[in-house]
Amino acid sequence: MDIRSLSTSHRHPQDAPYVHKVGLPPKQNLFSEFKATVKETLFADDPLRPFKDQPGSKKFILGLQAIFPIFEWGRSYNFTKFRGDLIAGLTIASLCIPQDIGYAKLANLDPQYGLYSSFVPPLIYAFMGSSRDIAIGPVAVVSLLLGTLLQNEIDDPVGNAAEYRRLAFTATFFAGITQVTLGFFRLGFLIDFLSHAAIVGFMSGAAITIALQQLKGFLGIKKFTKKTDVVSVMHSVFASAHHGWNWQTIVIGVSFLSFLLVAKYIGKKNKKFFWVPAIGPLISVILSTFFVYITRADKQGVQIVKHIHEGINPSSVNQIYFRGDYLLKGARIGIVAGMVALTEAIAIGRTFAAMKDYQLDGNKEMVALGTMNVVGSMTSCYVATGSFSRSAVNYMAGCQTAVSNIVMAIVVFFTLQFLTPLFKYTPNAILAAIIISAVIGLIDFDAAYLIWKIDKFDFVACMGAFFGVVFASVEIGLLIAVSISFAKILLQITRPRTAILGNLPRTTVYRNILQYPEAAKVPGVLIVRVDSAIYFSNSNYIKERILRWLMDEDELVNKSGQTEIQFLIVEMSPVTDIDTSGIHAMEELFRSLQKREIQLILANPGPAVIDKLHASGSAQLIGEDKIFLTVADAVASCCPKSMGEV
Amino acid sequence: MDIRSLSTSHRHPQDAPYVHKVGLPPKQNLFSEFKATVKETLFADDPLRPFKDQPGSKKFILGLQAIFPIFEWGRSYNFTKFRGDLIAGLTIASLCIPQDIGYAKLANLDPQYGLYSSFVPPLIYAFMGSSRDIAIGPVAVVSLLLGTLLQNEIDDPVGNAAEYRRLAFTATFFAGITQVTLGFFRLGFLIDFLSHAAIVGFMSGAAITIALQQLKGFLGIKKFTKKTDVVSVMHSVFASAHHGWNWQTIVIGVSFLSFLLVAKYIGKKNKKFFWVPAIGPLISVILSTFFVYITRADKQGVQIVKHIHEGINPSSVNQIYFRGDYLLKGARIGIVAGMVALTEAIAIGRTFAAMKDYQLDGNKEMVALGTMNVVGSMTSCYVATGSFSRSAVNYMAGCQTAVSNIVMAIVVFFTLQFLTPLFKYTPNAILAAIIISAVIGLIDFDAAYLIWKIDKFDFVACMGAFFGVVFASVEIGLLIAVSISFAKILLQITRPRTAILGNLPRTTVYRNILQYPEAAKVPGVLIVRVDSAIYFSNSNYIKERILRWLMDEDELVNKSGQTEIQFLIVEMSPVTDIDTSGIHAMEELFRSLQKREIQLILANPGPAVIDKLHASGSAQLIGEDKIFLTVADAVASCCPKSMGEV
């Protein structure tokens, strides 16, 4: 094999001409190639690296620590860290208790199930999770999503409460199974298919939907639509304006919402006062409950929580549907809810890991989150995950490890055991106000504006998800988000960019003439760069696009009377791979050009490409002496005289 | 904005230093950017180019010619061309008549429906199609697919013949609608998602399945399975071995199959004798029919065609289901069958267009094929498309234009009107032999071997589709083919390649050190090339992969005691685009490196990337003086002394 390119244009003046061939990578056997691909796809993070060259007993300990990171960080745990965790844990507990009661309502479940979900899952996570900052529990978006999906199957969550609850546990079980499976089979990269932009839109839309749902409790409306789109909800609200609103409720709601928003504002203005918005909800609950209790405002139509079941989580193993019609339905709902919950938790985990600069193993996180939901589903919990708002509070309160989650769980435990009767007179309007003030933080204008500035297509995805959630339902919004994300990938794949290159004056560098107006085309030579791997999905397009560049160029040449195009150089640096369809397309291109008496020249094919060009015989067809190391070499071979002066 | 890079390393010795900045492309407004994207996605072939700068009347004629290309090529039609078309038309007619009768059986329809489908659709296509070589009519694979899908809905195609037929027309109607829609909305690129490799495997598998199905007619078996997988079929065959086989049938079948295969071999050996395999089937039919007629072998259990309805296509407009349950089922089947039919026709069209070097407009072709199927569904035809075997014969017989299809249609017309009674005594075994000899050509060992040599992943797709069809069903095979094709795309997107670059001795060229073992790393500098656009689907992976390269390099450095890494250069030439997630990943990478006191440097970001780096403020974060035109410039900026000697 003699593909050599005289790199004349690069040679140093005082040296003799120096020869570089286009490198043909060393042949790999099939097995090692396959192994490399699998490793790069599924084990890109090289999880077994620490196990290398270790004795057996050490391997066992390392394995245990890999599954239960608490055994790793626990050994260096000390009192200073505990002080941080204690304060953070108490803070997030005070925030989570009122939120949990509200979120359970979003999922159409009784209030205690929200509290249950803040007890068992955080404990499990503390042992298995590797994030130090995440706060585990029920979250608004997943609660709403779960509620919507479950209600699609069981119309009347109040009438069929037992059945509905059983389906919820089933869905939670499968959400956990989905999460564990993704993590165990190292398919965590699948959640990367929901783009950042789509998540921003989806979250904002969900926040607005959730806030709108709160109008029921906030205005004291009794008859409220079951749909979640803005049109139905507003219709419900205004239809009940005359006789359905309760002014006492509104007064309570508005005053405490104002209080919460002011607290939020104080916390935002001065980071030192982060605890003001954090304990605001608990103070509101205490004050308003006391107020309703002494004024007996519940007799005036102010709706109250009434009853929260006392005691910790009962077992729910027997309640999960392991057969029958609901098994499949539960599994379907669980998969969707599990994926969304994962997306949220991983995004939070990554954000805080980047802030404190520690590594987070996505797949291991998924196993931890999944296990906690599987155990949760057997102890009367519904889907728990990492909460944006509480994690931020946790972080700001100075949490050091997952022990803050344990502290929180203990507080919830005491609440469930002893304090539930105290919530009897808590008005629903307060819960609504707390949820509204919590979800407002999910509406991220800045992010949306940044997306608009950076990438218009991303903005379309963002808005699509947003409007889908607001005007249709969370499912539709999610579907739109995923579809647009996929459409973008497909677009990227089917319509890769190509560029015409020109020579930057006085260099041997060739660059896109649209980006560098000073770059000059070489007379008689057309240089096209293909900016993607050439695969079946785009091979035909690339071939035709190159021919169209040639046609355009021919037209220009005819008009201006320049030298006709005699050489077509395809710069292949960005072409990382080629498949059989791509090889066929290159051969067809070669033949088309041959008929027009234009010489095809390739510049800098990568290892995979040059290998396949040889395997298929295309390199011989095109001519091995027509394959060069650089565009400059290729150009030099076309028109030695015009390059002589450089 | 002052992103300038001193391209010192490229400067010509006798010149002063020359400055090139990293180009920031001219700002486009949103609308023109959007227009460019839509144009490149949907109108990549620039279909309106000939209409530019033409007067109104000329535009009308051009438009007419665009829809009916016959008005374009018809004007230069002459007797020489007609002679070619006449011979080709007669040849393909002699081939299609026996094939049609057999293929109709594959679709579980009466024989005349095969002939109907070779009468109307070719006529329509001749006016609207732009391929000169394709031969239109029913084809084996689509007939089998349609038969299988229809039988999934209607179990007993004989007992419920009328209902089954109506559903077949409905499916044909929607197949046509699908094809027109794809063409009209210029979504033709969607069929590119079935990769060449998958098609090779699918076609070979379908060929074997079809051949196995023929064992029924070939061996004269009466009770035969309705499944198409090899296990069920072989079970059926051997279960009936004792009493179900008919030796007279086998004698007829084997002798004529041998004759057909010998004819095929002669045609292959010497291209001049292409007509031998082409008229072989008709001769077999005539001889065997005559033989059965005089020996009355049908009384000995040799199954015969018996009755073909006389006369041309009756109208079937009223038979299409436009409402009810079958509407949706028909539409679903039609979409699948229409897509597969399209894939076959477009592949054939492109192959022959490349051979004769004319352009084929894929989207226009789809409109033509779709229209012909819509009209076909109203005139008792089932899905027709381009046939591999007949198109090849058409080409070799010297066809010049689509007139050969008209000639064929006229012959079929006479056959339907006057000759159908002659087929009464044609033995089914002959039809089986003809189909077997026709589909054998679809099994493409050479292509499969080439795929194996070029791309192992493609080979997996090919084999997956093949075994799916053979051991399960055509649907499963198709599903596997599409899934593997998609998986490949997703893999490409989520796990792009990265490479470590080194300096080729005595040049300023930096190349992958795995491909060029002579390339030398620069001490203290790690140069990573990212080989893909950075999108949400891979941004996290790319960030972590780069950090892992750094870790690996650090280990090496520690072992060998070289200079520690102080600079990380990311070569961004192949990064054609970046989205918001990608920008975030770059910023996270920058921060991670900052904590390790390593300087991040970017080399040659493309127009879209530099634009977005500026819009998001990342360029300022990283430092505009850390963005260079070439890797060589970037390296020069890190360690001026080490580069001094080049």
UniProtKB/TrEMBL annotation, chains A, B:
Listed InterPro entries: S04_transporter_CS, SLC26A/SulP_dom, SLC26A/SulP_fam, STAS_dom, STAS_dom_sf
Gene Ontology cellular component terms for the protein in this record: membrane
Keyword Signal: no
MF terms in GO: secondary active sulfate transmembrane transporter activity
Keywords linked to the UniProt accession: Membrane, Transmembrane, Transmembrane helix, Transport
Parts forming coiled coils: none
Residue stretches making up the STAS domain: 515-638
Pfam families reported for this sequence: STAS, Sulfate_transp
Transmembrane segments: 124-146, 167-187, 193-212, 247-266, 273-294, 333-355, 367-389, 395-416, 428-452, 464-487
Main subcellular location: membrane
CDD domains per UniProt: STAS_SulP_like_sulfate_transporter
Signal peptide start-end: none
Membrane topology designation: Multi-pass membrane protein
Family in the record: Belongs to the SLC26A/SulP transporter (TC 2.A.53) family.
PANTHER family: SULFATE TRANSPORTER
Name of the featured protein: STAS domain-containing protein
Organism per entry: Populus deltoides (Eastern poplar)
